[in-house]
Amino acid sequence: MSYFRANIERMTGYKPGEQPPAGAKVIKLNTNENPYPPSPEAVRALREVLPESLRRYPDPFAGQACRAIGRVFGFPQEWIIAGNGSDEILSMVFRACAEPGRPVVYPFPTYVLYRTLAEIQDAPVVEVPFDDDYNLPLEKLIAARGAITLVASPNSPSGNTFPAAFLDELASQTQGIVVIDEAYADFARENALDLVRKRENVLVLRTLSKGYSLAGLRFGFGIARPGIIEALMKVKDSYNIDAAVIAVAAAAIEDQAHKNGNAEKVIRSRAVLAEDLSRLGFRVWPSQSNFILVRPPAGDAERLYLGLKSEGILVRWFDQESLRDKLRISVGTDEQNNILVRNLSRLLKA
Ligand SMILES: Cc1ncc(COP(=O)(O)O)c(C=O)c1O
Which of 6, 27, 72, 101 is surrounded by the most beta carbons within 10 Å? Predict the structure, then answer.
């Protein structure tokens, strides 16, 4: 007799990208963090956290942060939920909507956590394969009739966004909830926030981990009609965001100029990096995010990943069908990108 449910025994669990200890001398281009510092206003808010605010339980609705989100993005507070990273909001959605007999549907490959969360709920999973250009397999997604349908846009690891008209069609033809995971939207030309107003089954997720340079803070948010938000509130932990995080997140969200400035730098460097890697013979998929998916000329991605790692440069290699010959590389500073390109050039000749 096991302590655990049969589906928990069966699953392997989510394996996060490597996180070397603080201070380790590495160029870290493996988990899509922002290479630039967070807003000075956010840092000041962190310094000004009062011991008194730590003595008491925090606001269960993270009101200060959600009001900032409402002001910046133009939604009433009842349309917004805060999470301990957008991962936590994904957990809430799965807890509220997924169980045996209620399919979880998404195009594949994408964010691996979706499968893990479905396995925890013992929900059936329908992974609809992308084609080689990562076009959205719209018809098949609709036909799978998901209780939850998830689309990361920009998608990871491919980096591309999907036209709002396609996502609109998906939502209009799907009875279940449609989650548009916009973790990387701050680096993209388009997003699906308008769909939240138009379609009652759409939930858009955002995070401070990427555009706002606050992956260590753990703050994400979801925007949807109040009916969806109310249901997610029922399954969330009461005090899911701590008092310090609420204050820092609010300040970071208010400082859109800082976030946008960093995003512009990343977008410029992304273009240079893509060009440099193309010149080395890599196939480069067009990216609207802060990383790029590339295929080395000989497809020997694992060798290059290990070669870079031995030089202290971390990129992401996925031991997964359709990805084994590719690398996902976060866009770093121009200096970091140049070191990466120099090392790849050397490894290709080796
Ligand atoms: C597509 C996607 N969604 C969500 C997340 C999780 O972000 P957070 O740090 O807000 O939990 C990530 C993180 O890498 C991601 O790639």
Answer: 27
Q: Which of 222, 218, 198, 202 is nearest to 210 (CA)?
A: 218
User: Ligand 1: distance of its center to the CA of 87 in Å?
Assistant: 6
* 31 Cα nearest atom in ligand 1: 14
Sign of the Cα torsion 68, 73, 79, 81 reads negative
Our count of domains for the chain comes to: 2
Claim to verify: residue 284 and residue 210 sit in the same structural domain? no
Residue to substitute in 15, 84, 161, 210 for testing ligand 1 pocket (most ligand atoms within 8 angstroms of CB): 210
- CB-ligand 1 contact for 209 (6 Å cutoff): yes
Cα(255)–Cα(38) distance, rounded to whole angstroms?
10
Instruction: Look up the domain containing 101 and give its range.
Output: 40-254
116, pLDDT greater than 90: yes
Let me know whether 100 and 213 are in one domain: yes
| pLDDT value at residue 140 | 98
Q: What is the pTM of this model?
A: 0.97
- The CATH number of whichever domain residue 263 belongs to comes to 3.90.1150.10
The C-alpha atoms of residue 343 and residue 125 are separated, in whole angstroms, by: 39
